[in-house]
Amino acid sequence: MDSLVLILTVPFVFGVIMFFMPLQFKLLQKLHIVFSVIVSTLLLSAVGKVVNAEELSLFHNYIFLDSLGAIFLSLIAITGLLVNVYATTYMKWELEDGHIDIKEVKNYFALSFIFTWTMSLSVLCNNIAFMWAAIEATTLASVFLVAVKKDKKSTESGYKYIVLCSIGLAFALYATILLFSAANGKISGEAMLYTNLLANAENIDGMALKLVFIFALIGFGTKAGLAPTHTWLPDVHAEGPAPTSALLSGVLLKCAMLGLIRYYAIVANGVGFDFVQTVMIVSGTLTLFIAAFFLIRQHNVKRMFAYHSVAHMGVIAFGLGVGGAIGLFAALFHCAAHSFTKALAFCSTGNIARIYGTKDMTKMGGMIRIAPLTAVLFGIAICSLVGVPGFAIFVSEFLIFKAAAIGEQYLLMGIFAVALAIIFIADFSHFFLATFGKVEGEVVHNSEMKLGENLPLIALAILIVTFGVWQFDSFTFLLDESVKSIMKK
Amino acid sequence: MANIIDIVAVLMMVTSFAVFSLRQYRHSILAYASQTLLLVIIFLALYFKYGTHELLIWAGTAFVIKVLFVPLYLFRLVKKLGLVVEDEPVGGFFISPVVALSFSLAVAMMLYKVFIHFSLFQDVLPLFAASFIFMMGIFGFVLRNSFLKQILSYCLFENGIHLSLALMAYSSHELVEIGILTDAIFAVVIMSVLAKRFYAAYGSLDTSKAVNLRG
Question: What is the chain A residue with the closest CA to B188?
Answer without folding.
Answer: A140
